[in-house]
Design goal:
Shape of chain A: globular
Radius of gyration of chain A: 30 Å
Structural class of chain B: alpha/beta
CATH topology of chain B: Rossmann fold
Strand content of chain B: 15-25%
CATH architecture of the largest domain in chain A: 2-Layer Sandwich
CATH architecture of chain B: 3-Layer(aba) Sandwich
Distance between the termini of chain A: 47 Å
Order of helices and strands of chain B: EHEHEHEHEH
CATH topology of the largest domain in chain A: Heat Shock Protein 90
Number of strands of chain B: 5
CATH class of chain B: Alpha Beta
Strand order of the largest sheet of chain B: 2-1-3-4-5
Number of helices of chain A: 17
CATH class of the largest domain in chain A: Alpha Beta
Largest sheet of chain A: 5 strands, mixed
Oligomer: heterodimer
Number of domains of chain A: 4
Chain lengths: 536, 119
Amino acid sequence: MDVSKYKTLYLQETGEHISGIETGLLALEKNAGDSSVLDNLFRHYHSIKGMSASMGYEPIALLSHAEEDLLDKMRSGKIAISEEVTSALLKCLDATKALFERVKADEPLDIDISPLVASLKSAAEGRPERPVQPPTAAQPEGEHSLRLSSVMKVEGRLFDDLLATVGDLFMTLSSFKSLTHGSRSVEFKNGVHQLGKSVNSLHDTIIFARMLPLEDLAAGLPRVVRDLAKETGKEVALTTEGMDISLDRTILEGLGSPLVHIIRNAVDHGIEGPDERKVAGKPLPASVHIRANVKKDRVVIEVSDDGRGIDREKLKAKALSKGVSAARVESMTDGEVLKLICLPGLSTAETVTSISGRGVGMDVVKDAVESFGGSLEIESKRYLGTKIILEMPRTSSITKALLVEAGGEQFLVPISRIEKVVELDSGALEYGFYEYAGRDIPIVSLAGCLGIRQEARPRRTLIVLDARGTLGGAGTKSLAGLVVDDFSDEIDAYVKPLLPPISKLRGASGITVLGDGRPVFLLDVPQIISKALKGS
Amino acid sequence: MSKKVLIADDTEFFRTALKDILLGAGYNVVGEASNGAEALDLAAELKPDLVILDVVMPVKNGLEAAKAISALKLPLKIVMCTSLGYEPIVEEAIRSGASGYIIKPLSESKVLNTLSSII
């Protein structure tokens, strides 16, 4: 069982128990007869013991186990509460705290606790012993310095709050900006301009502070691969590249389980057993390679293996058995066939193993990646290997977007998707295609897609978009045109994720509130385009 | 129909770990209690198929909760969950109506094997 994901909870709750113990022991010194204090202390030690044992923090577990025993005896009256006992417990608390700090800092728990445990044991047997010196000297004896470190630890959530505040500032700024259009006051205009610069720089600083390197996530992967390889009897070597690239911590966090899942699939389904690889003349150990690189404001993470690749025929057969029509399956491009693996319940593994194929499949990975505004592509060569390509934004929340209008409603289109904006006679848009850069691209009406009634008008706006992430063909642009009635400003939108139940809404990836208080959806371009083109 | 489970443990750490294991195996976690009294209330209200009770909990401990829940005479099974060293309490719980026990630290196989042998 992978317990590392519970570390945050562990730190939080153990920290609470440690302060509970401190308060309890001090209360015990003042008022030895209070049985509820003893009960609470006992539970604190008991909880720390259980959690630490589960996390594999043995010294903490052993120490709290001895403390718990002692408390149990005090509780039942077998041991009298004395100053010696409480000071021994306080000494142990110092050691627990020191160990806890090491857990926090990911340092080895190499503090020898055996003298402390021995002192607790003899106390539990009613034999007082000389007080034991605490084994760690976090601060040199007698030197209680009060200097503060220049590096500060703060809750990650603080940055979320800060970013939300900056988002509100952006909104206020945009209403000021619209006021400057009608104002003749140069001072006002300059003031708003200056405010804009300050808000932007504040935003940049916060974004920077929220970034963490991919390394932080990847550090746990060698262990995952090792365990999986062991469990499946395969030989696999993991290599990584570009792990120094930083991402917003929320996005990095969100990448964790998709990445593990992709690697599980690769090891469990992709990579062949050693015998099969020898017969096929493939090298041992097999390789799983993770490579990250930066593309504009996004990061591309490729996970490739040199296993057996995806069997298209098997996928098609599965799709048919799941009720996808034969005509539909036959008309699919190779990219679309590979994407079938992301349909719920469509895992090609013949047997459900303990590792993957337990109902949680690539569909979950795809949803997780898309919920962060990312996209997923699959490339696979039969017998040579599979490559899963994730493209994720590096930072979240503030998105440059173009405000557009269709059928009287406003929407936002992410600037990163836009290739070109053109105004055209409505007649030119009737054929379903538009010639762009020497080839015909499909065009889609936004109002039509969303079922909004649209007035006839002589001219409309066509936005040429890159809808990559929908039609297969990883790495290459997939251009399409989106028809809207009109467009207005480019804005810095503080986009909030959609929460249930509107998170089920297809076609929108977030929501923002404009300066005047109106809520506007940010369009999920790949979804809108693919849905419209499939429907036609 | 997936089985409805109520989890009672005073640490969020174990509630979360247990919930992850159960959800991963297709159980439906219908409620979480942080002490024995809450567990009793939720058992009566949610009518789960299974209640997992930690032994050391505030307000009402796991043993007291197991007795009180058994007394409700609901069609449910009780599984005790505790650390090593509490075997006597677990045995008493089993005499008072619990069907099995899990010894912490939790592991997926330990939990799932125990549960599948019971329901």
